[in-house]
Specification:
homodimer, 93 residues
Chain lengths: 93, 93
């Protein structure tokens, strides 16, 4: 997996990330990873669903997986546990 | 799949749903479904991660899948598309 075909979900509007995924597919990628942490996970699922339903109909979600990451607390000592999430989309063969 | 071993994620605190999942496992269920829609999807992932990391160490996430559902708009005509999400957790054999 390279970083090139990975879209990281942040605080922008959902459609920004949908367009990023669609652009990946249209520029020749056969697979695209969508990654998110914490509250952005819901948006990652929206991005995958909108991409396959409306823009890249021959793409499908082939894997979804989650993990727990330790991130430093802002302004405090120690770390907090945050869920991370990854969706792999591929063009159907 | 029965409704008995399904935990629906709503607006309560995350730990309420973690306890519901743990209770299912402790009352003899070998598999538990966690279901959510829209913004609650992030919380569903947190619930699964916290359950397996802290409370039911022999449980694992065996499947995650998403779909798009049409829900009526509140106070308006027509329907809106909402992502739905399902996590299947099982005790390791």
């Amino acid at each position: 997996m390279s970083e090139e075909n990975t879209v990281y979900i942040g605080k922008k509007e959902t459609m920004n990330y949908v367009m990023a995924v669609v652009t990946q597919f249209n520029s020749g990628s056969n697979e695209v990873y969508i990654k998110a942490r914490g509250r952005a996970i819901s948006k990652a699922v929206d991005v995958a669903e909108i991409t396959k339903n409306r823009f890249v109909q021959d793409a499908e979600i082939v894997e979804m997986k989650s993990d727990t990451e330790q991130v430093p607390r802002t302004g405090e000592e120690g770390t907090a546990n945050v869920s991370s999430f990854e969706i792999l989309m591929k063009r159907k063969e």
